[in-house]
Design a protein that fits this description.
Layout lengths: L6 H16 L7 H9 L5 H8 L4 H11 L15 H16 L7 H9 L5 H10 L2 H10 L12 E2 L5 E3 L10 E3 L2 H14 L6 H9 L5 H8 L4 H10 L10 H6 L2 E6 L2 E6 L2 H13 L21 H39 L16
Antiparallel strand pairs: 1-2, 2-3, 4-5
Helix pairs in contact: 1-2, 2-4, 2-6, 2-7, 5-6, 5-14, 6-8, 9-10, 10-12
């Protein structure tokens, strides 16, 4: 999980450990992570917390009041509490939910306020108000282009794109030039039912020779027609434009084995989530260990996985049968056509009317 952390998020974890040691606490709790977020003012979370009136010195006092300092210094490794581990797991889920391929300080803060009973969330609620208000502030101030990708969506209002970038107009609308607005509309039309990708955006920008993008590339000697054709036909497999569900299914293998059905995947996102779920499960969960069992009460959501897998297998079966039937019909048609054709002359056959 930590390989997904941005530099700011990694620094928050380091600061949280330092804050725990400073208070002579022998664990890293949600309160220490909160102090780490405030100690990283350049991160999105730190900016939001400051905007809501929180400061590092004042919060340190509140933490010390709620969790008094220890009597002896912490030695060696300072572990995360179970609640802090779950906080980090929620930060991963928040990142995935937002479509981000990284974990930033904003996701850590969302994970922190996701547990209202944690000391960190309680302090935030006391200082900044309703946790729902804090969550909204985080989402409203998400960076457009952090360590991950851009965050904008097309709005129904002509000429506007919702976002949070510099250059916003009133009401949070990203101002666009006429060429950019036209390109977004064309890109949506090119994409059809698929998500709009970077190749659609570039192809759309090149479709108007008067746009600055098309003019600049034409001045560099690029054949715009060839570029547009290449962009329309490009294979997005393995690129950042491939939808995650398409990339995910390529990592999956389903293998019947006797009375069992084995589902294997090497998808890194699912692997991270599975490891996080295993760590969160009660260590006294039924055997075998290292497995996530559907009969556990907390695993009730696997019912949706069962239904999705059943639907997928039925669809695969129907598609395969249709394809097999179509191939058989094509073979029969070819045989019938071949049977009506005149046989080629036999060079060894004599032109004897009595022959054969």
């Amino acid at each position: 999980m930590f390989e997904r952390f941005t530099p700011h998020a990694r620094h928050v974890v380091v600061l949280a450990q330092e804050e725990a040691r400073r208070l002579q606490h022998h664990h890293i709790g949600t309160e220490h992570i909160l102090l780490g977020l405030l100690g990283e003012p350049q991160g999105p979370a730190g900016r939001v917390l400051q905007m809501l009136g929180m400061s590092l010195p004042a919060t340190r006092e509140q933490v010390a009041h709620q969790v008094p300092p220890g009597e002896r210094p912490a030695e060696g490794h300072v572990p995360f509490t179970p609640r802090s581990k779950k906080l980090l797991e929620r930060s991963l889920r928040e990142a995935i939910h937002l479509g981000h391929n990284y974990i930033g300080t904003e996701h850590i803060l969302l994970g922190l306020i996701g547990d209202a009973d944690g000391v960190g969330a309680q302090i935030v609620a006391e200082c900044a108000g309703e946790l729902g208000t804090v969550r909204k502030a985080v989402l409203d101030n998400l960076p457009v282009q952090p360590d991950g990708g851009p965050r904008w969506v097309r709005t129904p209002v002509a000429g506007t794109v919702a976002g949070t970038a510099a250059g916003q107009g009133p009401g949070g609308e990203l101002r666009t030039t006429p060429a950019a607005d036209s390109s977004l509309t064309v890109a949506q039309r090119i994409a059809g039912s698929q998500p709009v990708g970077s190749h659609h955006l570039l192809a759309a920008a090149l479709s108007d020779p008067r746009s600055a993008a098309a003019r600049a590339l034409a001045d560099l000697g690029l054949d715009l027609d060839r570029a547009r054709r290449a962009l329309r036909e490009v294979d997005v497999t393995g690129t950042a434009d491939e939808p995650p569900e398409e990339a995910g299914r390529r990592h999956m293998i389903i293998r019947p084995a006797g009375d069992r059905l084995i589902l294997e995947t090497t998808d890194p996102t699912l692997l991270d989530l599975a490891h996080a779920a295993l760590e969160a499960l009660d260590p006294e969960a039924p055997e075998p260990t290292g497995t996530i069992r559907g009969d556990l009460p907390v695993c009730s959501s696997l019912g949706a996985v069962w239904q999705a897998l059943r639907t997928a297998l039925e669809d695969i079966h129907a598609r395969a049968r249709t394809r097999t039937a179509a191939a058989a019909e094509a073979d029969d048609a070819a045989d019938q056509v071949g049977g009506t054709r005149a046989a080629p002359p036999d060079p060894d056959r004599r032109s004897d009317p009595q022959a054969g």
